[in-house]
Amino acid sequence: MKNIFKIIQLSRPLHKYVYILAILILLSSSTALVAPILSKFIVDQIILKLQNQGGDLNQLTLLVLLAFGMNFLNLGISTISDRLGDHLSGALRKFLTEKFYDKIFTLPQSYFDSEISGKIMNQLFRGISTIHNFINTATNFILPTFLQSLFIIGVLTYYDKWIGFFTFILFPIYLTLSYYSTKRWGAEEVKKNKIEDYTRGRMQQVIANMSLVKGFGNEKNEYDMVSKNLSEINVIYAKQSQTFHIFDFARGLSLHIILFAINIVVFYNTFLGKLSIGEMVLILQLVGQARIPLFAMSYMLTQIQMAESGAKEYLELLDLPSKEDYKKKIVAAKLKNPTIEFKTVSFNYESSNTVLNDVSFKINSREKLALVGHSGAGKSTIVNLILKFYEPMGGKILLSGKDYAVLDHASVRNNIALVFQENELFSSTIKENVAYGKPHATDKEIIEALKLANAFDFVDKLPKKMESEIGERGVRLSGGQKQRIQIARAILKNSPILILDEATSSLDAKSEKEVQDALENLMKNKLVIIIAHRFSTIQNVDKILVIDNGVVVDSGSPKELSTRKGIYKDLLTYQVDGNKKLLESFDLY
User: Fold this and answer.
1) How far apart are the first and last CA of the chain?
2) Quick one: which H or E segment has residue 344?
3) What does DSSP assign to residue 335?
4) pLDDT-derived band of residue 175, with 50, 70 and 90 as boundaries?
C-alpha cells in the first residue's frame, strides 16, 4: 500500500474532498444499521401482540416510520457520498494526468530516445485508470462496507460474544486468503504488463508506419508477432484465473462453515429463550449484511494490487530527475546578430562510444554554415547540442558569448527555428501547424508566412484553405507541400538562428526547387546551420565543416574544399559522377 499512500500524499490539494467524504461515509455506514436494529423492536412488538402480552400499535407505527425515514436518510447520504466520490476520483484522474504530462515536458531528450512512445502512454493510462478505479471503489464501496462491518461486529458481540467472534474471524480468514491470491495475481500481472506495453507500443508504431509495413509486405509478420504476444498474455491470464478460483473456493468453504456455526448458535439460543425472535431476526440480518464486504474482499484486494502496481509505474516516472523547467517565467528576448561557438566539446550517448571529441568551431553573425560528413559522423548530435536537447560531457557551448550551462532551455530555443528532414507536423489544420511557433499569430501574419514559403497558392486551392486538416504527419499533402508548411512555420517564428536538417533530401527536383526558393526567403539575415547530403543545397553557404567520427577534420568555403583532397571532395565527386552517368545514359552529357 506504500505507493497508494504516496499517491494520496501527492494529491494533497484534493484532501478537502476526502475529509468531507469521510464524514459522509461514517454517517452512511451508521445509518445503514439503524433500520435492522429497529426491525428487532418491530418484531418484538408484533410477537407481544400475537402472544397477547401487549404490543403498542402507536409505538409499532412510529418504529416503522422511523425505519423508513432512516432508510430514506441513508439513501440521501449515500447518493451524496457516491456523487462526491465520483467527483473526487474524476478530479484525481485529472490531477494525476496533468502531473504526469507536466513531468514529461521536463525530462531530458535521452529519456525519449530509450522509450517507445506507445509504452509511455500505455503506462500512463494504466497507472491513472487503476488508481482512479481504486479511489472510486474505495470511496463508494470499500470504506462504507468496512465501517459497516465494524458496527455489525460490535452489535453482534453485544448480543452474543460467540456470534460476534465467529463473524469477526471471517474477516482475517478472507483477508489472508485474498492477500495470497492477489499477491500471486500481481506477480503475474507484472509479466503481463511488460508484454502488453511492448505489444501496444509496437501496434502504435505499425499504425504510424503503415505504408512502410505494407510496402515491404510485412503485414503477416506484424500480425503474427502481436498474436503471439496476445497468446502469451492469455496464458498468464489463465494461470491468474486458476489461482484466483482455487483461493475463491477456499474462501467460499470457510464462509459456509462459519455461517453454519453462527446459525447453530443463533437458533439454539433462540430455542432456549436466550434470544428473542426480534433479536434473532436482527442477528440474521446483520450476518447477511456482513457477507457483502466478504464477497467483495477479493475484488477489493485485486483493486488494491492493481492500483499499487499502477502507482509504482506512475511514481517511477515522477521520480525521474527533471532537467527542464518549461513553466519558469523568463524574458526570452530574441538575440540580435547571435553567434554560436563550440570550445573543445565532447559528447557521448548512454551506452555508446564517444560521438564528439574535442569539437571546436565558431559561427559568426548571419553566417551560413553547413555540416557535411558520412552518416553517423556526429552532425545531428551537434544540432541536438545547439538545441540544448543534451548537455556536453566536456567543453563549452557559447551563445553570443554566454555559456550554455547558465542559459535556460527556453531562452536558447526561443532564438532557434527548425525545418526538419522528417515532416514534423500535427494532424490538425494548416493554420495550427504554421502558427505552432507563434500561437497568437493573426491570419494576416500566417498568410504572409505562407506566401514567403511559396505555400499560399496550393493552400488557397484547398476546400477549407488554411482550416484544411492535413491528416496524421501531413499525409494529405505532398512532400514538397509539407516542407513548405514547415518553412512557413519557421518564417512566422522569425528567430535569428535557423537549423535546416536535410530539409530537401527527400524531394524530387521540382519540389526541391520550390522549397529551395522558399528557404532563400527564410535564410535572409539569419545565422543558418544546414545538415545536407545534397551538395546543391549548400553551394551558397559561407563555410562548411567536415565531420568524421566525431571530429572536425576540415573546414572552408565550398570552393576551397572542392579543390582539396578529403572527405568533402570525395562526397562531391560521388555525386557529380552519379549525375554524369545519369546524363550520359540519356545522351545528355
Assistant:
1) 78
2) strand 340-347
3) P
4) confident
What pTM was computed for the model? 0.65
Nearest to 434 by CA among 457, 410, 413, 459: 459
**Across the strands, what pairs with 527?**
497
In this structure, what C-alpha cell is assigned to residue 66? Answer: 422511523
Taking each helix axis from N to C end, the angle separating 509-523 and 479-493, rounded to the nearest 10 degrees, works out to: 0
What is the Cα–Cα distance from 237 to 199, expressed in whole angstroms? 16
**Residue 48 pLDDT more than 70?**
yes
pLDDT at 589 over 60: no
What angle, 0 to 180 degrees and rounded to 10, lies between the N-to-C axes of helices 117-137 and 57-106? 160
Distant-in-sequence, close-in-space partners of 295: CB < 8 Å, separation ≥ 6:
none
Q: How far apart are CA 301 and CA 180, in angstroms?
A: 10
pLDDT band for position 379 (cuts 50, 70, 90): confident
pLDDT of residue 57: 77
Residue 344: partners with Cβ closer than 8 Å, 6 or more residues away: 358, 359, 360, 394, 395, 396
Q: Summarize pLDDT for 475-532 with one digit per residue, the tens.
A: 667 777 787 888 888 888 888 888 887 766 555 566 667 667 777 777 788 888 888 7
Query: Residue-wise over 12-34: b if at least 16 C-beta within 10 A, else e?
Result: eebeebbeebeebbebbbebbbb
Indicate the length of the chain as a whole number: 589
532 by Cβ neighbours in 10 Å (0-12 / 13-18 / 19+) ranks as buried
Q: Are 326 and 106 in contact (CB under 8 A)?
A: yes
Q: Which domains does the chain carry?
A: 2-188+243-318 (1.20.1560.10), 342-415+534-589 (3.40.50.300)
Strand 356-363 vs strand 551-556: parallel, antiparallel, or unpaired? unpaired
DSSP classification of residue 406 = G
Higher pLDDT, 47 or 388: 388
